[in-house]
Amino acid sequence: MKKAIACVVLAAGQGTRMRSTIPKVLHKLNGIPMIHYVLRAVSGLGPERVIVVAGRDNERVLREALKTENVQFALQKTPLGTAHALMSAGKALRGFQGDVLVLNGDTPLVSTMTLRKFITRHRRARKSLSLLSFIAGDPSGYGRILRDRSGTPIGIREEKDATEEERTIEEVNSGIYLFNPRTLTLLKKIGLNSKKGEYYLTDILEIASQKGLGCGVCCSGDEWEFLGINTTDELLRAQRILREKTVRYWLERDVSFMDETAVYIHPDVVIGEGTHIYPNVYLEGGTSIGSGCVIYPDVRITDSTVGDGVTIKDSSVIESAEIQGNTI
């Protein structure tokens, strides 16, 4: 992508529905905090800047958790909504003249490919503002995309404010936006929502449309990519989706499983072709498994290297080890 891009990850939410002392975006999927998946997705875009917006309650913990990441931090001092959170990144964006991608830190399943397609469509259409939408099988809880009779997007209606007719709309907001610098100045035009006492980023589409700026809504991606994690049930659902996706990836690379639902493979693990894995196996951290291996049930391997043709017996626990090839 020739034009510069900055990415703002909104991560100030308190996550009260998770009922946990751990900040929501640091809850783990396949052994990795969910915000790391978001950062990996945006890093594939080659951004000039990545800004994480934290809140007072989670800033210290987030800074520690992301200390090895190439990110800047912005602080939302008071939790006054998503538009206010984005405005909190203003200082970190100062002087930047490219496009600004905004997404939430609690949507860990979104892919680099989907984001790249979104940016490409936005630039080809020469829009001032674009948002990414999708068709929801069950749109309950999502903001509905409003269009006029010609199909032009004119606004987003949150469910609690929607009419019965608007609630039948299946195209919904993913929470992913793309701004040019001029459109970002319109954030100051967003008014306080009297019901919630917050400034909603969703209001930006209507404001930009009324100003006559070119606004686009790109309907793209698979619904599961935009799953936002707000509850432990949603965390478990995301875990299942990610495990299925990971298993499918390795099946396509000639790795076989006795039970595809009972293996747990971290995203940085590498497995050689022809390896067969039995149930209740955990492959964690930066583990590398060679080709033609057999891993029997109830095994945990963490940050280890296993050579070609190795057989790992039942109930083995292997940590930070190197096992030569053709070993039992």
UniProtKB/TrEMBL annotation:
One short Pfam family name for this protein?
NTP_transferase
Its Gene Ontology cellular component terms are:
cytoplasm
Q: Where is the Nucleotidyl transferase domain?
A: 8-239
The cellular location(s) given in this protein's UniProt record come to: Cytoplasm
Keywords, comma-separated and alphabetical: Acyltransferase, Nucleotidyltransferase, Transferase
A single Gene Ontology MF term assigned here is: UDP-N-acetylglucosamine diphosphorylase activity
Documented EC number(s): 2.7.7.23
Q: What does the record give as the reaction this protein catalyses?
A: N-acetyl-alpha-D-glucosamine 1-phosphate + UTP + H(+) = UDP-N-acetyl-alpha-D-glucosamine + diphosphate
For the keyword Transferase, the answer is yes
Does the entry feature the keyword Nucleotidyltransferase, yes or no?
yes
Its protein name is UDP-N-acetylglucosamine diphosphorylase
Q: What is the lineage of its organism?
A: unclassified sequences, metagenomes, ecological metagenomes
